[in-house]
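dumping this here before i forget
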Amino acid sequence: MLFLGDLKANNDREWLKMHDADYRQSKKDFDAFVEKMTDKMTEIDETIPELPPKDLIKPSGSFIGGGLWCPEAAPLAAMRKDIDRKSDRLKSVLLDPAMRKEFLSGISKDDRKAVKAFVEQNKENALKTKPKGYDAENPNISLLRLRNYTIGRKLSDEEVVGPKAPERIAVLMATLKPFITYLNSVVMPDDPVEESDEESDGSNSDQEAA
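structure:
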């Protein structure tokens, strides 16, 4: 991180040649950091893929988060359906003490405040009106308008490269895990039998009515 700060202030070929040894050591340290963090994150959630080391990171620009970013139509529809029918599932995740402390600005344990903070993080491309098939007066309309379902926060340089960085990031990843597990349960359910049965029943009813 210190090397990148120096590089930003001296961004020319000659300076880089003179500090080639510093660059190689910094890259070696960063690759080792990524490897260590990959092991930590796999301990928390074995579904996380191996992270390839990047050649460049940005000082004061690190971020941690997860979720559904611009999902395709099917998973987006599944999210809206689950929120419409069982909004308490998402809200219970948002109301977790660690989640509120680390990712929702330390809000109090209040449904409305949690939803507001979550919507604020995902408002960038939210619908201006109600999504098709939902009433504008739906009590969860602010969540239904979203087209992203993500949670994240910026990290300080100390949190990324400080002596306790791996442990700190591991805590944040563990805090995110229930949210990721919830999303996966909606868009990639382990047992879609109940959903299939409902669709089958509806299909039979339509045929009988016809």
